[in-house]
């Protein structure tokens, strides 16, 4: 399992994530959840093994060759959404209200 996490985590960099958000962010419905993961991962109180899992989740979303290609209309983002949901569930106790508040400031009308 650690090999898989490390494999996908290597596709994550802050620059790649920002580029991904700029180019693709408007197309995906789970953008606030991605940003919640990002802020949780940036927090110094988040343990390293949780950060690795969150990096792997972001790396999987950024990775152009998914289990289900993103170009498939309506279905391509399902696997990405499932990975994001699983990562948030895994990191649940480390996601602070401050992380959600930062996302809410960006998306005031969405539920985070």
From TrEMBL:
Coiled coil: none annotated. It is found in: Endomembrane system. Residues 50-85 form the DUF1232 domain. GO terms for cellular component: endomembrane system. It is a multi-pass membrane protein. The chain crosses the membrane at residues 49-65, 71-95. Keywords: Membrane, Transmembrane, Transmembrane helix. The keyword Disulfide bond does not apply. The keyword Transmembrane applies. Its main location: membrane. This is DUF1232 domain-containing protein.
């Amino acid at each position: 399992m650690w090999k898989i996490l490390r494999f996908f985590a290597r596709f994550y960099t802050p620059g790649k994530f920002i580029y991904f958000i700029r180019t693709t962010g408007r197309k995906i419905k789970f953008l606030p959840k991605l940003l919640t993961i990002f802020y949780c991962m940036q927090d110094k109180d988040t343990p390293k093994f949780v950060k690795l899992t969150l990096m792997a989740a972001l790396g999987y979303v950024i990775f152009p060759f998914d289990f289900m290609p993103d170009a498939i209309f309506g279905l391509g983002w399902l696997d990405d959404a499932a990975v994001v949901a699983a990562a948030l569930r895994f990191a649940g106790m480390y996601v602070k209200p401050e992380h959600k508040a930062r996302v809410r400031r960006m998306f005031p009308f969405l539920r985070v």
